């Protein structure tokens, strides 16, 4: 099953709604790859023994892993955390998330600074490159369980926009010139 992504409208309505631009403008996996966003579809029911996940982790050096459940009954300061996740930001390292259950959205900026919404569901693993502006939110189901992967020790620091002076942002923008 292919990843579903589309350009977003500019509505201020609930962030958990799909926000599809009208007319609908889908975004292909190839277009996302040009932005440095990569996707795999894996067997989330057997993540602990999945050879494909093990191979991806070994090839990419994802040595650290933890699991977070995002739901009002399991995440302390739930509403505050959702607002924080939805602030536009970047990281100095790649962001790697694997949806083990539930659903969620990642929004990323394209080369023209337009928002692309990526809908993720159980079995979707995504990597966002260091330096890309993005944000995260649940969909209207208000629940997801995700594996967070890192190269080495986890780094949780997000740099809210504007963060254009970071070297990693310059490197990311330069990488787009050739695509």
Automatic annotation (TrEMBL):
CC cofactor: Ni(2+); Fe(2+)
Keywords from the named record: Amino-acid biosynthesis, Cell membrane, Cytoplasm, Dioxygenase, Iron, Membrane, Metal-binding, Methionine biosynthesis, Nickel, Nucleus, Oxidoreductase
Residue ranges of the region described as Disordered: 1-27
Binding-site residues for Ni(2+), renumbered to this chain: 89, 91, 95, 134
Membrane topology: Peripheral membrane protein
Positions contributing to Fe(2+) binding: 89, 91, 95, 134
E.C. number: 1.13.11.53, 1.13.11.54
Pfam families: ARD
Annotated localization: Cytoplasm; Nucleus; Cell membrane
GO-annotated molecular function: acireductone dioxygenase (Ni2+-requiring) activity; acireductone dioxygenase [iron(II)-requiring] activity; iron ion binding; nickel cation binding
Cofactor note: Binds either 1 Fe or Ni cation per monomer. Iron-binding promotes an acireductone dioxygenase reaction producing 2-keto-4-methylthiobutyrate, while nickel-binding promotes an acireductone dioxygenase reaction producing 3-(methylsulfanyl)propanoate.
InterPro entries with a match to the protein in the record: ARD, ARD_euk, RmlC-like_jellyroll, RmlC_Cupin_sf
First-level EC class: oxidoreductase
Highest taxon above the source species: Eukaryota
Chemical reaction(s) catalysed: 1,2-dihydroxy-5-(methylsulfanyl)pent-1-en-3-one + O2 = 4-methylsulfanyl-2-oxobutanoate + formate + 2 H(+); 1,2-dihydroxy-5-(methylsulfanyl)pent-1-en-3-one + O2 = 3-(methylsulfanyl)propanoate + CO + formate + 2 H(+)
Pathway membership, UniProt: Amino-acid biosynthesis; L-methionine biosynthesis via salvage pathway; L-methionine from S-methyl-5-thio-alpha-D-ribose 1-phosphate: step 5/6
Any one of the GO BP annotations: L-methionine salvage from methylthioadenosine
Cellular component aspect of the GO annotation: cytoplasm; nucleus; plasma membrane
Function according to Swiss-Prot or TrEMBL: Catalyzes 2 different reactions between oxygen and the acireductone 1,2-dihydroxy-3-keto-5-methylthiopentene (DHK-MTPene) depending upon the metal bound in the active site. Fe-containing acireductone dioxygenase (Fe-ARD) produces formate and 2-keto-4-methylthiobutyrate (KMTB), the alpha-ketoacid precursor of methionine in the methionine recycle pathway. Ni-containing acireductone dioxygenase (Ni-ARD) produces methylthiopropionate, carbon monoxide and formate, and does not lie on the methionine recycle pathway.
Family, similarity comment: Belongs to the acireductone dioxygenase (ARD) family.
Record text on subunit structure and interactions: Monomer.
Protein name: Acireductone dioxygenase
Organism: Oryzias javanicus
Organism lineage: Eukaryota, Metazoa, Chordata, Craniata, Vertebrata
């Amino acid at each position: 099953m292919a990843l579903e992504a589309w350009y977003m409208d500019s509505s201020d309505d609930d962030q958990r709604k799909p926000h599809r631009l009208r007319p609908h403008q889908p975004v292909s996996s190839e277009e996302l790859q040009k932005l440095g966003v990569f996707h795999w579809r894996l067997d989330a029911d057997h993540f602990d023994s999945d050879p494909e996940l093990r191979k991806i982790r070994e090839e990419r050096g994802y040595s650290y892993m933890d699991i977070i459940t995002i739901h009002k009954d399991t995440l302390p300061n739930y509403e505050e955390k959702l607002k924080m996740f939805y602030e536009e930001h970047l990281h100095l390292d790649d962001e790697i998330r694997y949806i083990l259950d539930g659903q969620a959205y990642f929004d990323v900026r394209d080369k023209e600074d337009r928002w692309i919404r990526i809908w993720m569901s159980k079995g979707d693993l995504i990597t966002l490159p260091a330096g890309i502006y993005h944000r995260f939110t649940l969909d209207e189901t208000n629940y997801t369980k995700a594996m967070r992967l890192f190269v080495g020790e986890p780094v949780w620091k997000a740099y809210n926009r504007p963060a254009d002076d970071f070297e990693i942002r310059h490197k990311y923008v330069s990488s787009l010139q050739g695509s």
